[in-house]
TrEMBL record, chain A:
NCBIfam families: PRK09646.1, sigma70-ECF. It holds the Pfam family Sigma70_r4_2. Belongs to the sigma-70 factor family. ECF subfamily. Residues 146-198 form the RNA polymerase sigma factor 70 region 4 type domain. InterPro entries: RNA_pol_sigma-70-like, RNA_pol_sigma-70_dom, RNA_pol_sigma70_r2, RNA_pol_sigma70_r4_t2, RNA_pol_sigma_r2, RNA_pol_sigma_r3/r4-like, WH-like_DNA-bd_sf. The keyword Hydrolase does not apply. Residues 1-23 are annotated as: Disordered. Residues 46-113 form the RNA polymerase sigma-70 region domain. This is ECF RNA polymerase sigma factor SigK. Keywords: Sigma factor, Transcription, Transcription regulation.
Automatic annotation (TrEMBL), chain B:
Keywords: Cell membrane, Membrane, Transcription, Transcription regulation, Transmembrane, Transmembrane helix. Residues 101-233 form the Anti-sigma K factor RskA C-terminal domain. Its main location: membrane. Gene3D superfamilies: Anti-sigma factor, zinc-finger domain. The lineage of its organism: Bacteria, Bacillati, Actinomycetota, Actinomycetes, Streptosporangiales. Pfam families: RskA_C. It comes from Streptomonospora nanhaiensis. It is found in: Cell membrane; Membrane. It is a single-pass membrane protein. This is Regulator of SigK. The chain crosses the membrane at residues 96-119.
């Protein structure tokens, strides 16, 4: 029925232009197009561009480095397999890849949670301490992080908490509502308002 | 049903903070609501910035293992559209009967009562999954589709929420010794195994097919026992 591909791609080693972009949308989408044609060096460029964010967000959610590495591998292999199916009308390449990454990290948290919740009715209520202070970081990433922090500070405390418990910790809105003992609609409103404020503060455009 | 509420699922969807049933509702809504699709795109770009702020380089071994794996991994061909967020199942809606309505047909009720009890029992013996069938049939979004397959008649009960279907076929010739009827999902990604059907007597075969996704068809084929990646026998096809 389907003939397995016979990796007949030419791999040109090296020659990667390291300063070609810093996440430029068009550059990434051009790279992805080449990845879809089986170009492993384009795949490596895409990896260099996005792996830090993929691994970083997976580690932030999962806390565990080994699991974050596994997620990173899964994500990029999924990108490799399905690169021809990315639909640009649904968002940028970066958003696509990081959506896969976040979802996979969260899925792992939830399946672990489901397992441990059966043992202890309480479960893990406190989100894990953020581990990133222990790692040296590059200047550009520090700047981006500072900017995000500044914007997070502009949220109200309940909005910030809603973003933290969902995006960074992997709880569902419903779990957050249970945890904070507030109605679900309240949590939905806080999360939505928080994301809108972050979007505006970070100057996100589509 | 919950129109108003569904606009409100977009933020949660963007940061993966929905329960499984809410995810389905959000995706259904996104397929129809342009405003929410725009919100989603913006929220996701916002999340990209949050993720980039977490940037930490993984060990080089991570790339090496990805590269080694990619070299031996087939890439999927382009697909017409992304089922999860685009076409969804508008295509099939018209063909599906609500299960409640179908259930009122006495004939089906009688046939199914016996068959499903028997499927439940078998599953209970094997994997203690009795409740799976019951949950599936009770799921709010469970739909039924009936089709004839030559001499045989097939009935599928499917729930997107549960991501599974129960298939009942009557009038199949008995599977020869060492052979079994197998089910296959067919979607934009190709054909994949959906499980084995069990005989429940009187020329009736039934099976529970999980991992449904958004299939175009369900196939049945007679196969030698043992796991197979693709059908080798001639397949009977049910359009979904
Ligand atoms: Zn909407």
């Amino acid at each position: 029925m389907r003939v397995p591909g016979s990796g007949a791609h030419t791999v040109s080693d090296g020659g990667r232009d390291d300063e070609e972009c810093s996440g430029g949308r068009h550059a990434l989408s051009a790279l992805l197009h080449e990845v879809a044609l089986g170009d492993l060096s384009a795949f490596e460029s895409l990896y260099r561009e996005l792996s830090g964010a993929v691994f970083g967000v997976a580690r932030r959610v999962l806390v565990d480095t080994a699991q974050a590495e596994e997620v990173c591998q899964e994500v990029f292999l999924e990108v490799w397999r399905t690169s021809a199916r990315h639909d640009p009308s649904l968002g940028s390449v970066g958003a696509w890849v990081l959506t896969i990454a976040h979802r996979r990290a969260v899925d792992r948290v939830r399946s672990e949670q489901a397992a441990s919740d059966r043992l202890t009715a309480v479960g893990r209520l406190e989100p894990p301490a953020t581990p990133h202070d222990t790692v040296p970081e590059q200047v550009e990433h520090r700047l981006e992080r500072e900017k995000v922090r500044r914007c997070l500070r502009k949220l109200t405390e309940p909005q910030r908490e809603a973003v933290r418990l969902t995006y960074y910790t992997g709880y569902t809105q419903r779990q957050v509502a249970d945890l904070l003992r507030v109605p679900l609609t309240t949590v939905k409103g806080r999360l939505r308002d928080g994301l809108i404020k972050l979007r505006d503060c970070l100057g996100v455009t589509v | 049903m919950r129109r108003r509420g569904e606009h409100g699922l977009t933020a949660g969807y963007a940061v993966d903070a929905l329960e499984p049933a809410e995810v389905r509702a959000a995706e259904r809504h996104l397929a129809e609501c342009e405003d929410c699709r725009r919100d989603l795109a913006e929220f996701r770009e916002t999340a990209v910035r949050l993720a980039r702020a977490e940037t930490v380089q993984p060990r080089e071994e991570v790339w090496e293992s990805i590269l080694a794996e990619a070299r031996v991994t087939r890439q999927k061909p382009p697909t017409r559209s992304r089922p999860a967020e685009r076409t969804l199942r508008s295509r099939s809606v018209g063909r599906w009967l609500p299960w409640g309505l179908a259930a009122s047909l006495a004939l089906f009720s009688m046939v199914l009562a016996g068959t499903l009890a028997s499927v439940s029992e078998r599953l209970a013996e094997q994997e203690a999954r009795t409740s799976e069938v019951e949950t599936l049939l009770a799921a709010a979004d469970t739909n039924m589709v009936a089709a004839s397959l030559g001499e045989a008649r097939a009935t599928v009960f499917a729930s997107y929420d549960r991501d599974a279907a129960v298939l009942v076929v009557e009038g199949l010739s008995a599977a020869p010794e060492g052979m079994a009827y197998r089910m296959w999902w067919v979607d934009g990604d190709g054909v994949r195994p959906a499980g084995v059907m069990e005989s429940s007597g009187e020329g009736r075969y039934a099976g529970v097919a999980g991992d449904m996704g958004f299939p175009d068809q369900l196939w049945i084929s007679l196969e030698p026992e043992g796991d197979m990646a693709e059908p080798s026998g001639e397949e009977l096809s049910i359009d979904l």
